[in-house]
Amino acid sequence: MVADSSLVQEYSIKRWDFTKAGEASCEIKNTLKQIGVSQDVIRRVAIAAYEAEMNVVMYARRGKIRCEIDTTIIKITIEDEGPGIEDINLAMQEGFSTATPEMREMGFGAGMGLPNIKRNSDVFEITSVVGRGTKLKMIFNL
Amino acid sequence: MTLAEVKEVLQAELLTNDENNLSLQVRSACASDMMSDVLAFTEPEALVITGLASQQTLRTVEIADAVAVVFVRGKRPAADIISSANEKKIPLMTTEFCMYDACGLLFNKGLCGVTEQVRKILSKNGSR
């Protein structure tokens, strides 16, 4: 639970906007630097947020990334409108990917995205409804 | 190893404009064209060696706290990517060596890879 006094940032993510892809995660990273969060935590948050942001850019129609920071945790929520994930257990396996050749040309689609997000978070939750979208919640302890 | 040494070993060309950055140190190297692999396995202060000359390479370096990029096989990113790297103070270099040779040359000079990090992750996953 994030307290009312927390710092909240929210960004929109657009499908296939590869020029701006990653900007939200970089801005979150810069904010964490400015408020003096430790380098290890910043790096884990940035990697997890960036992987999640790229998933929205590549697979969904649109999405939002929300970052809430209080004195004890950083909470990142990413929610998209998109095709959803049919088999979450399969999608969590390293190496499993449904990426197109175009996505691979951008350097993504190695099947490492969701496992990378989970590995870098202290708490990771994923819910998805096929045909509607996917929601990720990540918590990082400070 | 300093970036100046990397540049010399790989007979590389510096694409960004601040030669002072060549004094920066790299502690390890991660070579891949897949950015998720770079995000998973690089450690801070790493050199990224890749054939992927896209905006996402630059973002990945920024996100993962890597130091610099060497593009192999003579790859050159577009001017807007080089300009963005100048703003972010991320040195970019290009070498005509292929990835295998570039890695071999740097390894031979003592720059290690990220196998320990890969092993750590594999063992946590129970894959071995």
List the helices and strands and how they pair.
The complex is a heterodimer of chains A (142) and B (128).
Chain A: E1 7-14, H1 23-34, H2 39-59, E2 62-69, E3 73-81, H3 88-91, H4 101-105, H5 113-120, E4 123-129, E5 133-141
Antiparallel strand pairs in A: 1-2, 2-3, 3-5, 4-5
Chain B: H1 3-9, E1 13-14, E2 28-31, H2 35-41, E3 46-50, H3 55-63, E4 68-71, H4 79-88, E5 92-94, H5 99-108, H6 115-125
Parallel strand pairs in B: 2-3, 3-4, 4-5
Antiparallel strand pairs in B: 1-5
Helix pairs in contact in B: 2-3
Walk me through what this model shows:
The complex is a heterodimer of chains A (142) and B (128). Chain A has one domain: Histidine kinase-like ATPase, C-terminal domain (Heat Shock Protein 90). In chain A, 35% of the residues lie in helices and 29% in strands. Chain A is built from 5 helices and 5 strands. Chain A has a 5-stranded antiparallel β-sheet with strand order 1-2-3-5-4, with helices on one face. In chain A, a hairpin with a 3-residue loop joins strand 2 and strand 3 (73-81). In chain A, helix 1 (23-34) runs antiparallel to helix 2. Chain A is globular and about 40 Å long. Chain A starts with 6 loop residues before the first strand and ends with a strand. Chain B has one domain: HprK N-terminal domain-like (Udp-n-acetylmuramoylalanyl-d-glutamate--2,6- Diaminopimelate Ligase, Chain: A, domain 1, 3-Layer(aba) Sandwich). Helix content of chain B is 42%, strand content 14%. Chain B has 6 helices and 5 strands. Chain B has helices at residues 3-9, 35-41, 55-63, 79-88, 99-108, 115-125; strands at 13-14, 28-31, 46-50, 68-71, 92-94. In chain B, helix 2 packs parallel to helix 3 (55-63). The mean pLDDT of chain B is 93. The chains are: A alpha+beta (142), B alpha/beta (128).
